[in-house]
Amino acid sequence: MQLSSNSNQPDSFPATLVDLRKGDAAILDRIDLPGEDARRLMELGFLPGSRVTAGLSAPGGDPRVFRVDGSEIALRRETARRLKVRLEKSKPSRS
Fold this sequence. Notes:
The chain is mainly beta.
């Protein structure tokens, strides 16, 4: 099942949750998983258009924690690789 949001942002480039570093945020664009797997992630808050922030990871990098809809959820690398995101533009810091 492929679920995606309808918004197009030309100034973002395609990435997956695996590409995010700790503290990076992105907008979930598409879930490229079989129906039941996609449905379960959507029940946990991974909805196209939602903001996802990368958190800590286990030693070796798998699984990894992501914050979405006020919850922290650990995903294996192979699952996170199937969630496509649009990276948020970083705001320039003011000193």
